[in-house]
Amino acid sequence: MQGYYRFPTIFKNKIAFVSDDDLWISDINDFNAKRLTTNISNVSSPIFSPDGNFISYVGIEDGNTEVYIIPSDGGISERLTFEGAFISKIALWSKKGIIYTSDLEKPFGRISDLRLFDIKKHSSKAMDFGISSNIAIHPDFTVIGRNTQDPARWKRYKGGTAGELWIDHNKNTFSKLINLNGNLACPLILNNRIYLYQIMKVLLIFILV
Q1: From CA 11, how far away is CA 89, in angstroms rounded?
Q2: For the range 117-123, what are the long-range contacts, defined as Cβ-Cβ under 8 Å and sequence gap of 24 or more?
Q3: Residue with more model confidence, 39 or 116
Q4: Candidates 3.40.50.300, 2.40.160.60, 2.20.25.90, 2.120.10.60; correct CATH number of 1-131?
């Protein structure tokens, strides 16, 4: 069956993704996908929890973009945030909680920063990283992306709001990771390597020593 598949997220042998504006899950050993949501509105940017038991996503079931979670084995979604701001995506589900982008308390719409929703305290707070839309965390450093929302909309763009990656070695002082004449996006850390996407060219790999 043909479909339009977006926003894949992986945990071990499980793959969750969005199709037909709903959340689906499949197993690499069994390609029969199971629908997890049947929402009236669309869902986007799902991310597995660190233990793989839940999936967080952005939904607009109640009119505003808010953060939801659902058991990865199926069940009822739970709305976590009630902020009424524009939430563009789930950036990361870390050990501390769900990190997402939001323009809450910002002077201009669609200018986002990163917020952390604490699952245990059931509350959210700004991470005070400034304007940012992506994050990747390593025990020794943190990488954030600025102006790195949606690569598909910024192909060949080299202007003043091109995507940039900044790094902090746990000193609360960020500096630009690299200077490239293009639009950077999607930072990912695996072991000591930072993977990123440079829209003008190809996937690049940087090794921190």
Answers
A1: 19
A2: 117/67, 117/80, 117/81, 122/80
A3: 116
A4: 2.120.10.60
8 Å CB contact between 80 and 69 = yes
Is residue 180 scored above 90 in pLDDT? no
Give the residue extent of every domain in the chain.
1-131, 135-209
Strands 98-102 and 87-93: antiparallel
Structure confidence at residue 142 (pLDDT): 93
Averaged pLDDT, 63-76:
94
Give the model's pLDDT for residue 209.
43
**Do 88 and 101 meet the contact criterion of CB atoms below 8 Å apart?**
yes
Among 80-84, 117-121, 152-156, the minimum mean pLDDT is found in 152-156
